[in-house]
Amino acid sequence: MTSGSVDFVEVLGLPERARETHRLTKKDIVEQWEHTAPADARLLRRAISSARIVGVLSPATTGVPAVRDADRPVDMIPVLEVRIAGDVTAKDERRAAELLHRAIPRPAVITLSSPEGGPVLSLALTRLSKTDVGRSVVEEHLTVPIDGIAAASIHVGELDRTDLGSLYRDVVRRAAADGHPAPSLRDAAEAVELRHRLVGLDEDLQSAMRSATREKSMQRRIEHNGEARDLRDRIAQTRHALYGEPSVRTRTSEDPKLGP
Q1: C-alpha angle 103/189/29, rounded to 5°?
Q2: How far is the C-alpha of 201 from the C-alpha of 209, rounded, in Å?
Q3: Confidence check: pLDDT of 259 > 60
Q4: Angle, CA of 25, 110 and 107, to the nearest 5°
Q5: Largest CB tally within 10 Å, which of 62, 77, 102, 127?
Q6: 151: closest CA among 124, 180, 173?
Q7: Using H for helix, E for strand and C for coil, what is the string for the chain?
Q8: Is the model's pLDDT at 250 over the cut of 50?
Q9: What residues form DSSP beta bridges with 117?
Q10: Residues 214, 215, 218, 219: is their CA dihedral positive or negative?
Q11: How far is CA 256 from CA 117, 171, 177, 200, in A?
Q12: Cα gap 58→74, rounded to integer Å
C-alpha cells in the first residue's frame, strides 16, 4: 500500500456524518509556537507541507458520549491528515507530530505521509496542561506504519464505545499491536510501552548481528551471538505480551518492520 493509495477516512471507517474537509494553514499550525518556542515553530514551518481535518469524532457524529474530566476531557476527537515536506528526517517528523498533539487540548488521530516513506499513524495519550492553556501534555506518543495495521481493525464501529476517551485508548491499544493485541492486553499505555520496547530490542538485535558478522575474534563473535540469542528470547517474550504469540517464537528477517 503506497502513501498515494491510502484513504485514511476508510482506514478508520469513519461514518459519513463524521467526515469533513477543512484545510489548516501554516499560520493555523505555527502561530501558537512562535512566541513561546520559536525553534519548534521553525521546525513545523519547515516540516509540514500541508494539513487538513478530514473528520471529527464526537457524540453527534458517532453516538459515543463525551468525557467530562478536568484533566482529560474528550468532547471530540479530530482526525488530521498531514503531508510532510521532502528531506525531513524521521526524528523531525516525529517531533512535528508530537507538537501537533501538544497543540490540541484533546486526543487527536493524525496520519503523516511523506515523499520518502509510507503513511504513518500518530497517536498520543495526553492530559490537559496546567500551565499552557489550550495545550496538552503528551504522556505517551506512538507512531506506526499504517500499511502494517490489519484491515478494519481500527474501524470506529469496532472500538470500545463506552465513551470517547475509551474509544481513543482502544485505537491506541490496537494500533500498537498492528490491529492484533493480545486478548489479555487491555491497557493502552502498556501497549505503547511494549511496542517501544519491541522496536528497541529489534534494533539491538540487528546491531548485535552486524557486530558478530564484522568481528574477527572468534571469542568476541561468540559473545555477540550469545547476546543475539538473549535478545531473540526477550523479543519473543515481548511479542507474546503484545500480540499474544507463542513465547517460543523469535523474530526473523521475514517479520514485518516495527518502526515507521
Answers
A1: 15
A2: 12
A3: no
A4: 100
A5: 77
A6: 180
A7: CCCCCCCHHHHCCCCHHHEEEEEECHHHHHHHHCCCCHHHHHHHHHHEEEEEEEEEECHHHHCCCCECCCCCCECCEEEEEEEECCCCCHHHHHHHHHHHHHCCCCCCEEEEEECCEEEEEEEEEEEECCCCCCCEEEEEEEEEEHHHCCCCCCCHHHCCCCCHHHHHHHHHHHHHCCCCCCCCCCCHHHHHHHHHHHHHHHHHHHHHHHHHHHCCCHHHHHHHHHHHHHHHHHHHHHHHHHHCCCCCCCCCCCCCCCCC
A8: no
A9: 114
A10: negative
A11: 15, 20, 12, 15
A12: 9
What 127-134 contacts at long range (C-beta under 8 Å, 24+ apart), as own/partner pairs, is 127/71, 127/72, 128/70, 128/71, 128/72, 128/73, 129/102, 132/36, 134/32, 134/105
* Residue where the block lists cell 464501529: 157
pLDDT on residue 247? 55
81 beta partners: 52, 111
Q: How far apart are CA 85 and CA 114, in angstroms?
A: 6
Tell me the pLDDT tens digit for each residue of 101-160.
Answer: 999 999 999 999 998 888 999 999 999 999 998 999 999 999 999 999 999 999 999 999
Query: Would you state the pLDDT for residue 135?
Result: 94
Other beta carbons less than 10 A from residue 234's beta carbon: 16
Euclidean distance between CA atoms 172 and 152, whole angstroms: 14
- For the cut 60, the answer to whether the pLDDT of residue 184 exceeds it is yes
Calculated CA dihedral for residues 155, 161, 164, 167, nearest 10 degrees: -50
Q: How far apart are CA 166 and CA 168, in angstroms?
A: 5
